[in-house]
Design a protein that fits this description.
The complex is a heterodimer. Chain A has two domains: 3-65 and 160-337, QueA-like (3-Layer(aba) Sandwich), CATH 3.40.1780.10; 69-147. In chain A, a hairpin with a 4-residue loop joins strand 15 and strand 16. Chain A has a nine-stranded mixed β-sheet. The longest helix of chain A has 13 residues, at 311-323. Chain A contains six helices and 19 strands. Chain A has helices at residues 140-147, 187-196, 233-241, 250-258, 300-309, 311-323, and strands at 31-36, 39-44, 56-61, 63-65, 69-74, 77-88, 91-97, 113-116, 119-127, 130-137, 172-175, 199-205, 227-231, 244-248, 260-261, 266-267, 270-274, 289-292, 334-337. By secondary structure, chain A is of the alpha+beta class. Chain B starts with a strand and ends with a strand. Chain B has a seven-stranded parallel β-sheet, sandwiched between helices. Chain B is built from eight helices and eight strands. Chain B is an alpha/beta fold. The chains are: A alpha+beta, B alpha/beta. The A-B interface holds A 87-89, 91, 93, 110-111, 122, 124-129, 135, 137, 223, 225-226, 258, 269-276 and B 20-21, 24-26, 183-184, 186-187, 189-190, 193-194, 196-197, 211-217, 219.
Chain lengths: 340, 219
């Protein structure tokens, strides 16, 4: 698929700059656009259960957000080190940036040393194909415990506490950025789903820092940094018998599809690192629908949305969302794609 | 004291990438190879030690063992491709050379160095029957069984298929073909960052694809 097929115009103002709680509203007081082959419905997130059926299964990510943004200082001066992914106790993938709003790349070299919260850190190697990412050696877990803050980008107007970046399902710390599709879930929403006869299962996938726009001409040539994931036997069993599987977030799609066994034609328990890129040419096997936020033009996640729901349904939905003034980004509105 | 890692065929291509990564993460790295000049150039650039020699030569292997002490990691990367041609036309002497370098030498190096972890570089030609690739492919298939057998015998051992890359070896396999669309061998760096953080016992007898869709943990 041509990368240009992921492009569209999004008005700059359509982005959430703060969570609903900042205005005294509950988390589930965001909007919900429901896109199906029968058309698009404008709703509130609290009404999610109205759009799902008895026997449906929603799958959520139980990864919790870590305080991954660290102040660093070295020969280039002061900068931010946004931790992305833990490869081992002392081996991390991370993104050095000038600031929340000014990305890198910084003039850094392999072997450079710098300090992060009094912790000595060394640059090991550039990430192949992504100049802004580095493998970094050091005890960054310790540094994050003492000095870390949640990663924030320029469009968020002020710092929010780490709790603003945790979902109701967060259990295991490890995500550099919140698996944000589940952010609007409240106990009210969960109770209403249970009453409806919708079951809930869990996967774990620790998100890295957001990937940039795809730079290759063909989507399939793009590579995504690997992320650690886990699908248990209990979740595989539920997914394999559910009437309809609705992934809560792109991380859930990536994990479930990574656990899809082609030979057996079903989801199997599996854990490790996944490099899977989901696009229409690959398709999806384990999920039938997707609840997610709104994604930026050119983002690789859009290729996944096309794979789940078809390009036309997604593009129609985005037109509808722009006309209706829906808000983009992690504190913004939600989009439920139900292609069947 | 730094732990020691030995990378055979470490002067260029994939071997150089692995040697560089290990050196940066604090290993005392020794690279081997047949071209002293290429070894010296690489050693200067990435800060590793050199023991020149042919892995299939017992005297060279002995010299390597004499210069290494305790070895934490052995990467059996040096490989002989041979001539790409049908098996019925292959010369027995060339096949013998391929098996010497790709199968016998890795075993002999394990005997000589007694490493804590053996990483054997393999190929998709070890599992698929490709026309013209019978010599190289069967030697890599043998290496994979060697790797699993070592693990069964209590020596931590793993095989890694690095995938297609823009290397001299790949060019030799496809003479005259434009291979510029293949990724450079540094495409495998994330995999090495992951692999060398794993508990050696959890890798025993397993096979990974460095450019594959996932790297699974043992269940």
């Amino acid at each position: 698929m041509k990368t240009e097929e992921l492009n569209f115009d999004r008005p700059q103002e359509l982005q959430a700059v703060a969570p609903p709680e900042a205005q005294g509203r509950p988390r589930d007081d965001v909007r919900l656009l429901v896109s199906t082959p029968r058309g698009h419905t404008h709703a509130q997130f609290r009404e999610l259960a109205n759009f799902l059926d008895e026997g449906d299964l929603i799958v959520v990510n139980d990864s919790a957000t870590i305080p991954a943004s660290l102040h660093a200082r070295g020969e280039v001066g002061r900068f931010l080190l946004n931790v992305s992914t833990r490869f081992g106790p002392r081996m991390w993938l991370a993104e050095p940036r000038w600031s929340e709003s000014t990305p890198g790349p910084l003039p850094l070299d392999e072997g450079d040393r710098f300090a992060v919260c009094d912790e000595k850190v060394k640059l090991i190697s550039r990430y192949p194909g992504a100049e802004r990412l580095w493998f970094v050696e050091g005890d960054l877990a310790h540094a994050m415990t003492r000095c870390g803050e949640p990663i924030r980008y320029g469009y968020v107007d002020r710092a929010q506490p780490l709790t603003a970046y945790q979902t109701l399902f967060a259990r295991a710390p490890g995500s550099a950025e919140m698996p944000s599709a589940a952010r609007p879930f409240t106990t009210y929403v969960v109770d209403s789903l249970r009453e409806k006869g919708v079951d809930i299962a869990t996967i774990r996938l620790h998100t890295g820092v957001s990937s940039l726009e795809i730079e290759t001409d063909e989507v399939e040539q793009h590579t995504l940094p690997p992320e650690p994931f886990r699908v248990t036997q209990a979740t595989a069993d539920k997914v394999n018998v559910a009437k309809r599987v609705v992934a809560i977030g792109t991380t859930v799609v990536r994990a479930l599809e990574s656990a899809w066994d082609e030979t057996e034609g079903r989801v199997v328990p599996r854990s490790g690192f996944t490099r899977l890129l989901i696009h229409p040419g690959r398709g999806v096997h384990a999920v039938d629908g997707l609840l997610t936020g709104f994604h930026d033009p050119g983002a690789s996640h859009l290729a996944m949305l096309y794979a789940v729901a078809g390009r036309d349904l997604v593009r129609d939905g985005y037109e509808e969302a722009i006309k209706g003034g829906y808000l983009w980004h992690e504190f913004g509105d939600s989009h439920l794609l139900l292609p069947r | 004291m730094k732990p020691t890692a030995v990378v055979t065929g470490g002067s260029k291509g994939l071997g150089e990438v692995i040697a560089t990564f290990l050196a940066r993460t604090g290993y005392d790295v020794v690279i081997t190879g047949r071209s002293e000049e290429a070894l010296a150039r690489t050693a200067k650039r990435i800060g590793v030690r050199v023991v020149a020699g042919d892995v299939s030569d017992p005297n060279d292997r002995k010299r390597l063992a004499d210069n290494t002490g305790d070895v934490a990691i052995l990467v059996n990367n040096a490989s002989e491709l041979g001539t790409i041609r049908p098996l019925v036309e292959s010369e027995p002497d060339e096949l013998r050379r391929i098996f010497d370098v790709n199968v016998i030498a890795p075993i002999a190096l394990v005997q000589a160095l007694r490493p804590g972890l053996v990483v054997n570089i393999t190929s998709d030609a070890a599992v698929g029957a490709y026309e013209g690739w019978g010599g190289y492919g069967s030697s890599k298939a043998a290496l994979e069984l060697v790797s699993r057998t070592l693990a069964a015998e209590g020596i931590h051992s793993v095989t890694v298929d690095p995938g297609d890359m823009r290397t001299d070896m790949h060019q030799a396999a496809f003479p005259g073909e434009d291979i510029s669309d293949r990724p450079a061998p540094d495409i495998t760096i994330p995999f090495w960052a992951w692999l060398f953080q794993q508990d050696a016992a959890s890798l025993d007898g397993r096979r990974f694809q460095a450019q594959g869709e996932r790297w699974e943990e043992a269940s």
